[in-house]
Amino acid sequence: MRKPLLAANWKMNPVTGATALELARAVSPAAAEHAGQVEVAVFPPFCFLESVAAALVDAPVGLGAQDCYWERSGAFTGEVSAAMLAGWCDWVIVGHSERRGYFGETDEQVARKAAAALEAGLSVIVAIGEREAELEAGETDLVCSRQLGAVLEVLTAADADRLVIAYEPVWAIGTGRNADPAHAGATMEVVRRRLDGAFGTEAAGRVRVLYGGSTNAANVVSYVELASCDGCLVGGASLKAEEFSSMIGAVASVEARQAIRPAPPDPPTGEGGRGIRPAPPDPPTGEGGK
Ligand code: PEP
Fold first, then answer.
1. pTM of the predicted model as reported, rounded to 2 decimal places
2. Which single residue of 171, 221, 238, 280 has CA 20 to 30 Å from 214?
């Protein structure tokens, strides 16, 4: 059973520490109200990690960084190591398309970061996704498999519990052009199959797969309803406390519905992530999640 995750990537926002604290405090009530159904984590800039951690000390909200370096320490001006972050937060994002695109990060570097983060005891969100030209060339699965493959090469099934893969088509990030859920679902199914192949079905079943790209309160349900989707990595909408709180509530309502819905008469069709998640076979455990 995988509990859905809503991860708030604040990117290089907000500019002041006071606003960061305000934002963190403003999303806490919704996270607390729906903690049984949805896991929430926020990813502020490095410089606000300490104060946001203090503000969230009693809130069921995870805290993460937006990047890390793979070396533990040394002459790497400007970098922050995974080992350093482990003292401040639980999570880190690696391989975001803005890091790959603007800062030239390669698949191999992303893989080293993921391995270092897990080694340091952090949970890690590995972001993958195709650019617009790759989408148009029909290369989505190829690109995602390549990016994911580099990471899976250096991880093992033992990492499954702390590994999250975020499928984020680059053309959908910050553009208002969220991916068609059918496209997202089919790609997340490809990710799931790669995970199965690398870790075996049991361990792979513990890895969460998220969608990211122009999600908001109006469209989040169309993703988390997919059998292959375990939540969303949210950028712009996560900076608006009211909108993000509505997203938390919307994901929780999907979980609640899934938990009470009777099992469908037919098994899943194997259509590749285009279907709605089937109800779980057991009665609700009170834990929410899948
Ligand atoms: C992101 O930056 O990971 C992201 C998904 O951004 P947005 O939701 O703004 O598209």
1. 0.90
2. 280
